[in-house]
Amino acid sequence: MTQTADLPRAVAAAVRDARRILVLTGAGMSAESGVPTFRDAQTGLWEAFDPSQLATPQAWRDDPPFVWAWYAWRIKLVRDVEPNAGHRALADLAALREVTVVTQNVDDLHERAGSEVAAHLHGALTELRCADCHTQYDDAPALPDEPVERLAPETCAACGGDVRPGVVWFGEMLPEEAVRTTEDAIEALAPGDVCLVVGTSGIVFPAAGYPAMALAKGATVIEVNPVETDISDMCHHVVRGTAANVLPELVGAVADDPG
């Protein structure tokens, strides 16, 4: 296992020589853009509340305006930030190699940087839908300028129900299509391909199991993370650094020596 603060030549060579690159991203991918993690978003007005009070179907049934107020504030926080250099580097990499991006993040920063995201495993904040009839809601929601404790959800034009965020709550199943797409991408990997794991803790399943699945297919598994994680010891290479620092360097190395 290679572990270094600098980009090892072997890492650049692995990406350069790969036919397919599967990129798995987590919260660390967007942290440098200023996107608060699930718990980091609980500051100020929200710091006294446990996530289980905010991110469950039961919480929504009990008090939709309370839950929606928190998510509306999170949507505003995401809309106020920009993709970082790591997001942009992955979009650049897709112009050089066959890249599939799968993310646990609920923001849209990959897309805004120019990447096509194959799967949002935990849903997406801005993919709003009716909580009753599940009709997609495409209008821009009204967002508060400051955090508020309660905010009436948007109304579904089809049935009059409350519109909810498109995230996966505790107790809900992951989107079947997202899981199937991810597992198909892993199944397509072959020896010489790369699985690039960026900014994920490696503790949330099923995503935490995907690097091992890629390893079993013979892919070279590369972790980019400033800290050790639960998947570090199974990776061929570990690059200790942030996405915004490491990924542009990696893509630059591939672009300079396209092979």
Which characteristics define this entry?
about 260 residues, Rossmann fold, SIR2/SIRT2 'Small Domain', 2 domains, 9 strands, about 15% strand, elongated
Structure, explained:
The structure is a single chain. With 259 residues, the protein is an alpha/beta fold. The protein folds into 2 domains: 1-33 and 83-122 and 174-259, TPP-binding domain (Rossmann fold), CATH 3.40.50; 36-80 and 123-167, 2-Layer Sandwich (SIR2/SIRT2 'Small Domain'), CATH 3.30.1600.10. The protein is built from 9 helices and 9 strands. The strands form 2 sheets. Strands 1-9-8-7-2-3-4 form a 7-stranded parallel sheet, sandwiched between helices. β3 (98-103), α6 and β4 (117-120) form a beta-alpha-beta unit. The two termini are 24 Å apart. Residues 41-46 have low confidence and may be disordered.
Share in β-strands = 15-25%
N- and C-termini, Cα separation: 24 Å
Radius of gyration, Cα only, in angstroms?
19 Å
Order of helices and strands: EHEHHHHEHEEEHEHEEH
Indicate the mean pLDDT: 91
Helix count from the secondary structure assignment: 9
Draw up the topology in text.
Elements: E1 2-4, H1 9-17, E2 20-25, H2 27-31, H3 57-62, H4 64-79, H5 85-93, E3 98-103, H6 109-113, E4 117-120, E5 123-130, E6 163-167, H7 176-187, E7 194-198, H8 210-216, E8 220-224, E9 237-239, H9 243-256
Parallel strand pairs: 1-9, 2-3, 2-7, 3-4, 7-8, 8-9
Antiparallel strand pairs: 5-6
